[in-house]
Amino acid sequence: MALRLPLPRSAGLWLAGALCAAAAGAAVLPARWLLVMLPDDAPVTLADASGTLWRGSAFIALGAPGAKRVLPQAVQWQWRWDAMALDISHPWLQGTLRARPGWNGLALPAQSLRVPASVLPALGAPWNTLAPQGMLEINWQPLRLGAPLPPGPAVDLRWRNAGTALTPITPVGTYLLRVQGGGKAGATLALSTESGLLDVKGQGSATGRGLSFQGEATFARSASEADRAALDGLMSTLGRRSGDTVRFGTGK
């Protein structure tokens, strides 16, 4: 008996049916499957996921494997079929984040995030020694995760009212790390001081080969002798010290 191949119209119906069945099956997949997809050694992961892949929640976990700290506030998500996008919400986000998946990555609109600096010690050294205080404000332009940053301003990370347990002075200042995209060439990083008793600056780059950054910190001109004495222990902890200048960095 000869094998009869389905007509093109029938094949299309079969394919549509298969896609509908796959979508219906994915709609009930448990959210905890996200935990399997994420690498165990990532410094930022998810924990205690509940719900489904389409609508659920999970807690953010920071730190190295075996020493992760689960933050108390959950991130929530819901798929919007009318917009073909994923709405993500969290108390740190300044509004709902609408992410749109595509063949070349996950598109994110411009948004901002406010994070207490007190969560950073969960990431380990050197933050657990510094015991930072203040607020981290992260502002980014429209970008696409999974693709190179386009040329131009991309992300601003501002540490407002920066403080640390290593000095009684609070705040020490406000500092800005600016990330600019360079397309396939990677991204450049620039650290600067907006205000404060420590004058901090630095330059670096991030490419597929890794991160390279070099910076230095000195006492600001406005720092009195009493301020310098109170900041002395912090300066000695930041990096390689030579007189009133400390150099720090990573990579070449």
TrEMBL record:
It comes from Achromobacter arsenitoxydans SY8. Belongs to the GSP N family. It is found in: Cell inner membrane. Keywords: Cell inner membrane, Cell membrane, Membrane, Protein transport, Transmembrane, Transport. Its main location: membrane. One of its GO terms (biological process) is protein secretion by the type II secretion system. InterPro entries: T2SS_protein-GspN (IPR022792). It comes from the Bacteria. This is Type II secretion system protein N. GO terms for cellular component: plasma membrane; type II protein secretion system complex.
